[in-house]
Design a protein that fits this description.
alpha+beta; 3-stranded antiparallel sheet; 7 helices
Amino acid sequence: LTQEADDLFLGKTLLHVQSPCRWGLDSRSPCYSNTGGRRQLLKESPELDGADLDQFEIRDAYPIAIPLKVAAEVSWIVSDLRMHLFFNNTPREFITSDDPVIAHNQYCEGITHLGVTGLNNRGLQLFWPISPKHLVMLFDAVVYKVDRADQQICTTTLSDERDVVQLNSLQILNAHENVYFKEATPKIEQHCAILGRERRKRYVFVEAEGPPEASGAPSRIVHQFERLLPHRLNVGAIRIRKDALRVPLAERADYFRHEIGLHGATEVPRNAPAGRYQIKKITEK
């Protein structure tokens, strides 16, 4: 199997549509909670001046429309990612979950103070098991060397059961409530039990004191991000390139694959100094 430059764009778009965040299809999204950013923006809207929004529950009428709309607008961002198919040739099968498309960033493992799985982040990886024997991965080819993908061979047969365990771990840690598998085995049950204790809150809301408004009134900045899964990915066919490893870990989250707008960057780190805005509150969900 070989891959032409544009042949898989449709497949990449489908993969992105299948990967809203776990709350993406929930009409009661946490972004409308008291700490969520959208509720705060609504409170500042002139049209709702005087309304006590804390007395109301805010929902999206058509939550499925949100990831579909976003996918149509930003799918081009993943157009540079390479696609690779893993064939599972081991006795242990791939499992899946109620949140099956995993966004990970092996390159940025160890960074916990901000999100590193945005569609434009350098080092992004997307994993999607499509059957007990097949798994699709999208990856940043500037950062990762995946088997013989450099020779346009875009499939790999996994013969080491440990590689399958590594990929299944992502599903267990990322699942919202349910993990799915073809047949229950003691190994799968034990795996779920062990990693179930490692699952933790992933969504972080950071409220900081922002610059004053033109009128002199105080302002605040609400930032939301999703932490990496608590897992050090180690699959034999996936390696970080030597040039990428030369970048210090603390700087890797500041690199992006595409320039977007006036504030985007390709290989230029952001210049906002740490501690510029005083953090007032951090909430985890």
